[in-house]
Design goal:
With 279 residues, the protein is α+β, with helices and mostly antiparallel strands. It is globular. The chain has a 4-stranded antiparallel beta sheet with strand order 1-2-4-3. The chain is built from 13 helices and 4 strands. Helix 3 packs across helix 7. 43% of the residues lie in helices and 10% in strands. The chain has a domain of 156 residues: NADH Oxidase (3-Layer(aba) Sandwich), CATH 3.40.109. The structure holds flavin mononucleotide (FMN). Flavin mononucleotide binds next to strand 3.
Amino acid sequence: MGTLADLAAQRFGMDVDVAEFEAGPGADVLAALLSHRTHRRFLDDPVAEETLNLLYACALSAPAKSDLQQSAIIRVQDPGRRRAIAELMPEMNWIGTCPVFLLFCGDSRRIRKLCQLREHPFANDHLDAFLNAAVDTALVMQNFITAAEAAGLGCCPISVVRNHIDRIADITSLPDHVFPVAGLCLGYPAHPGFTSTRLPPEIIVHTDQYDDSRLPEQIDAYDQRRNGIYTIPPEKQRMTAAYGKADFYGWSEDKTRQVSVRERDDLTAYLRRHGFCLD
Ligand SMILES: Cc1cc2nc3c(=O)[nH]c(=O)nc-3n(C[C@H](O)[C@H](O)[C@H](O)COP(=O)(O)O)c2cc1C
């Protein structure tokens, strides 16, 4: 692992002034956070049950809204179910090949059952009930990823499970008020992976009031900087039939092409069918 300054420079493709923290408390934790990489190719080595149990414990140490703890983790172990899930997303072969596949779900069911058990009304049956469970689950998954990386493992979250939400719910028997947030591939990485260049804090962090008036030039600079580190090859340009081959194909061109395709139209219907009131 490099110095904090090296790691931050790799993360943003530009120097970040963090030198004063190199020898400070928690520098190893900060370095681990800066070093995050998604992994999609794994060794066949199994993940020990004891390791998994440690990762669950770390994951469930994440903060939880009002201590309501509204998440569920399904470990998909049965080979038939694993295969059925992998076959839904053949373009992501890491789903079928990773040693462990988990499904992180928002769980608003448990607290509602407890309300029945304790004979109290569940009074907040609106969009916030869904959002709280989704946020709790994302935090649990992030803690899991951070812990896994600290233990030498690699992860790849899979939101594409939501493109097949009914089948995924069938395969894993999700009841009402439980919904998939993301899958997670886990295993020992087969290669070191690479650091993905992030938008700089000056775009994301606002002082006192939201201000994106400089976004066009800031994004141009980011596109150029990112392209200098990794150039997306021409054959990886998306949807060239619709948008043509771009001479300069930066992050913003790639991402706007990606989101120009509508998907997951059935998410709201799934949530309503599974008991959520989204008003
Ligand atoms: C909520 C979430 C869902 C994701 N879904 C997928 C996915 O379906 N398939 C995939 O290959 N990667 C997926 N990823 C991984 C992202 O593509 C990856 O995090 C992003 O490209 C940034 O790279 P990095 O994590 O290495 O910094 C997902 C990541 C997150 C946080």
